């Protein structure tokens, strides 16, 4: 695990967030003075995020079953971590935070911005509700459980078989050579091959997946912890493989400037034949496109460290974090989390929103066929490491900048390695 910033470092970083407070944090600061029967929940569910409508309905049901308690939601998007940190610095933070384990949030429990919830999980009898893999990912290097796990995600590769057929590609590619051949045929028909947000986190994740082609999970963990992409033979070979695919035209035109929104639009409107798509994106694929989509893994090169095409999988998409203010309202927090962990509530997120869960459930996403198909991939695919838990938080955004460099056609493998390593030196 990367070393976490000190408490002083957290406070110093937060001092630069005054603008965020003025724009979007005022409600958070004001609301934290509420009484013990009002639970303040800071969440990303309430925007367009999949699961928002189900969450709103669940809160309504919670109110009906607990007339003496009220949940007040504060909603933010990608800026939630900054807004929360600002409110925490003023000691007026919300009681519960619903956000993923990534970038800034990696340090929260270490610096006291949130509390270790392992004891509460056990005291409230909820441990058996959580998948063991999720507990592992949410537990830090000192044995602290950062949050109550909730959402997970599969991250396979979606292939539009109708477009592949139109281009004369007989089957879903499983090797790099097959992928290059498919890209040439697709381009000849005016179809973009692999669409990817090369200018944001989606491209960062796909690049990391391809870099790991020749790395074991342990080797990948080391590389993404220390950022030494040149000192690892496997990392060098993975970057060489990425560059060979890129310069053969596998990725969509000008991929280095595309975003996740562009990527999903190109795939959903059948302008591109392939995308690396987490389950929340799979849930949004229109029925017309989904009818011609199959999901699988990323094609491998000869000599790969894996024997099957690979996917990403993570159990850290959203968890329930308890703040120091939340500790003062533990009875209310316990009732809320027990409710959210109930099998019937968990099942609603699966059936109504197509969410993958970090909790034990037998419910299948019947109305979201691609999500369900991804859940059934099993041993037909291999799994590589999602590096988010190991990348130092200060390197996260520089790595996205480096990703855009990597997706720029003609950029040498040596330049890609240098850009990735510079992200860590900047950190």
TrEMBL record:
<protein>
    <submittedName>
        <fullName>ABC transporter substrate-binding protein</fullName>
    </submittedName>
</protein>
<keyword id="KW-0732">Signal</keyword>
<dbReference type="InterPro" id="IPR006311">
    <property type="entry name" value="TAT_signal"/>
</dbReference>
<dbReference type="InterPro" id="IPR050490">
    <property type="entry name" value="Bact_solute-bd_prot1"/>
</dbReference>
<dbReference type="InterPro" id="IPR006059">
    <property type="entry name" value="SBP"/>
</dbReference>
<feature type="signal peptide">
    <location>
        <begin position="1"/>
        <end position="32"/>
    </location>
</feature>
<dbReference type="Pfam" id="PF01547">
    <property type="entry name" value="SBP_bac_1"/>
</dbReference>
